[in-house]
Amino acid sequence: MQKLPRPFYDRDTVIVAQELLGKLLVLQSAKIERIGKIVEVEAYLGEHDLAAHSSKGRTERTKIMFGPPGFAYVYLIYGMHHCMNVVTEREGNGAAVLLRAVEPVKNLPGKTSGPGLLCRAMEIDRRLNGHDLLSDELFIAEPEVAERISVVKRPRIGVDYAQHWAKRLLRFYIKDNPFVSRP
DNA sequence: TAAAGGATAATA
DNA sequence: ATTATCCTTTAT
What we know:
By secondary structure, this protein is mostly beta strands.
């Protein structure tokens, strides 16, 4: 399986977010391999983006976002769900892409639509925070057969507090894919 | 529509 | 040390 290389992530977050659609999220644990096709994402642009965690500046929690591209940023939200992001752009920019839904490809029981459910199905938790996405345990790969994808652009979900940033079309998903969390 | 739930960041 | 807040989900 062909891992996406570091330079893939070291680009404009809006581009990376859209190009992540259709790619395969792979997690190799001790004995099992889980694979999901990414069908829905959101772009978080950096310190100036009021919806992004990095807008709080560099903290213990956000330091991963400010780190180099191609690493996982995983956090606990609302005390019960994990969310996984992919760090983008060069170190210091604080940008990332939130993975919101995948389509089950291999060993993914239960629902995978929604950032919390996606992590539950993949068994992703904070132990993977800061994990390298070019590692053998967790990575994103190019699918064997490329598919033609139509990208739908919508406002991000759950960021009403971010004023005008809440209206920007930074949520992307594969048109007509049944695993999108909120079409 | 609201409750659940715990870490986080700001305030003190 | 205390408190408000949160990139959600599920159930009423």
